[in-house]
Structure formats: structure tokens, C-alpha cells
Amino acid sequence: MNNYSKQREAILDVMKENLVHPTAEEIYQLVLEKEPQISKSTVYRNINILVELGEIKKLNMTIGPDRYDYLYKEHSHAICEKCGNIFDFYYNFNKDEISKELLKQIGNNMDINSITIYGICEDCKSNNKK
Amino acid sequence: MNNYSKQREAILDVMKENLVHPTAEEIYQLVLEKEPQISKSTVYRNINILVELGEIKKLNMTIGPDRYDYLYKEHSHAICEKCGNIFDFYYNFNKDEISKELLKQIGNNMDINSITIYGICEDCKSNNKK
DNA sequence: CTTAAAATTAGGAACCATTCCTAATTTCGG
DNA sequence: CCGAAATTAGGAATGGTTCCTAATTTTAAG
Q1: Closest nucleotide to B63's CA, by C1' atom?
Q2: A15-49 as b/e, with b when 16 or more CB fall inside 10 Å?
Q3: Are the beta carbons of B101 and A89 closer than 8 angstroms?
Q4: How far does the CA of A55 sit from the C1' of D2, in Å?
Q5: pLDDT score of B127 more than 70
Q6: Ramachandran sector of residue A39 (left: φ over 0; alpha: ψ -120 to 50; beta: rest)
Q7: Residue of chain A nearest B104, judged by CA positions
Q8: How far is A125 from chain B (nearest CA, A)?
Q9: Which residue of A has its CA nearest to B106?
Q10: A101 vs B: CB within 8 A
Q11: Distance (Å) from the alpha carbon of A112 to chain B's nearest alpha carbon
Q12: Residue A100, SS3?
């Protein structure tokens, strides 16, 4: 099972130890502490491989660079479109019913990977300097 | 009310006429037909202004450049993380209950703007050349 | 109208995040 | 071991987007 390169292992370790939705750059900085010679392209390449393998999840941001999440436990995300803050939360979406609706409406039997809430957080509502 | 520049009007018109989730580049190409001298920076700047004003919505993609949607009617999106296809659909998410859960779990009274499903579409499941 | 201030523009440079390229190194299977 | 396959470091290249500037357009007031 452990047939990853040590660089890829180090990246996955960083993700497990930092459940804070880091950007690729932040992952790179953290991995540097374990593997000081690692290159940024290796980090990007392995992040993509880990996403492809389903080990980590890419979070699609409205602002700023993409972020990544280690899936220690199933959860959803609520993302503030103004400040980019990501909140983990649990909600029992009725995926079966949503799947059925999708099939009915779009004629496509999708596999649902995740459900994300986009909105405006409390701070951004009150700090509304516009 | 019509105190938009003609360039901004043209962009909004293009969005109303093309409910196909275009990228910024595609919007630029379409607007060129109406305003042949428009520059790409004007398109980007006005897209951002229209998003800020809530006239159009930015869709956060797992792959490829961001896409935009004119909100002719409230709907949700199901996005394929592999091919980037976007499907419009209607589902009566219980936003009040979700809001309450968010407040309880993350202690933040967010305004929910949209709920997006990320998954793998039927085609990408069967065309799985991996 | 005239005019000054404010907003917007075109065009291109700059920027940032990410991917691609290459030659060298490491890992894997037999 | 040994050859093939995978991975790496490092840097160049790319793509998408934002920023800068001087010129133009729009707006509001007189």
C-alpha cells in the first residue's frame, strides 16, 4: 500500500496534520519542513494525483487560489464568496432524492461527490464598506 | 436605471441571450460582435462589477476557467468535476434548516447564495479510460 | 450649453497560479 | 541485479486575470 514516493507521502501527511483547507502554496511551505529539497512542481503534480485518487478534495473558491481538504470524515463546506473563509459542517442531504431529481431533470445519472454552500458570512455582511 | 456604459450593457445582454455558462473569454468573443472595439480588460472588469451587483453569478469550477451564469430564475448547479459540464436544475433545499445548522455548528449566521453539487457525470463514468 | 469632476475605456504590461519540459534519479518487477 | 517505468528538481512557459495609464465618455451643476 505504501508504494508512494516519499515526496507524495510527505504531502499526504501534511494534509492529514493540517485540516485547515490550505492552498497549494501553503502545502508547499509546510512540506518544505519535511522535505527541504522538494520542488513546487512536484507538490502541484502530487496534489493533482491525490485529488484524482480521492485522497484529498479540491475546493472550488469564488476568490483566491483553490484550496484542498483531507477527507478525514464526510462533511460539507460553506464558503464565503467575499472573504473566502471555509466552514466545515455536517448536513444530511438527501442524496438519493437529489440524484433522482438530477436524472429526471437533466437526464444524467451523476455520482454526487459533494455539496457546497456558497454565501456571505456574518463578518462580511457587517463589514460591508460598500 | 440604464446608467450603465454601453459596454457594460452589451455584456449583460450577451449574458441574457446566452444561458450556457460561458467563460470570460467566451463572453468577450460574443460581446465583440456587438462592440467590436471592446477590450478584454473592460470585459473582465465589468463581469466582476456585474457579479458584485448580483446581476450574474460566478460558477466555481473544479477544472478550467471560471464560468458565469445569468440568474434568469433561481436554480442550482450540478457540475462534473471531470469534464466541467454544468447542469442547471431545481431542487427545494431547505435553506432555513441548513442556515440553522450552520449557525449551530459554525456559529456564523451566513446568507446562503447558492448550493452546488459536484460530482461525476454519466459520460465521464463510462469513458473512464483510467 | 459649458465646464469640471467622476467614471469608464482601450490597450498592453504585469502578475499569479499552475502546468509543462527535460535530463537526472529513484522505484519496481522479474 | 537489471531494464523499464515512474518520479523528481528546477526552471521555462502558459493561461487566466488584474493592474496601469492616458484618453475618452458620462454625469451633474451652474
Answers
A1: C18
A2: beeeeebbbbebbbebbeeebeebeeebbeebbee
A3: yes
A4: 34
A5: yes
A6: beta
A7: A89
A8: 8
A9: A87
A10: yes
A11: 4
A12: helix
The pLDDT tens digits for A40-89 are 999 999 999 999 999 999 999 999 999 999 988 889 999 999 999 999 99
Strands, E assignment, chain B = 56-59, 67-70, 76-80, 86-89, 111-120
Could you give the CA distance from residue A9 to residue A68 in angstroms, rounded to a whole number? 16
Task: In whole angstroms, give the CA distance from residue B58 to residue B29.
Answer: 18
Given an 8 Å threshold on Cβ–Cβ distance, is A119 in contact with B114?
yes
DSSP state of B104: H
C-alpha cell at position A80: 464565503
Q: Which residue has the higher pLDDT, B126 or B36?
A: B36
Q: At what angle do helices A6-17 and A40-53 cross, to 10 degrees?
A: 70
The beta-carbon neighbor of A116 closest among B91, B118, B122 is B118
- Residues of chain B in contact with residue A111, where contact means CB-CB under 8 angstroms, are 119-120, 125
How close B47 comes to chain A (CA, Å)?
13
- pTM of the predicted structure, to 2 decimals: 0.92
Closest CA to B60 of A13, A79, A1, A91: A79
> What's the one-letter identity of residue B116?
T
Among A61, A90, A98, the residue with its CB nearest the CB of B60 is A61
Q: Nearest-CA neighbor of B72 among B113, B11, B18, B10?
A: B18
For residue B122 the three cell numbers come to: 454519466
- Cβ distance A16 to A73 under 8 Å? no
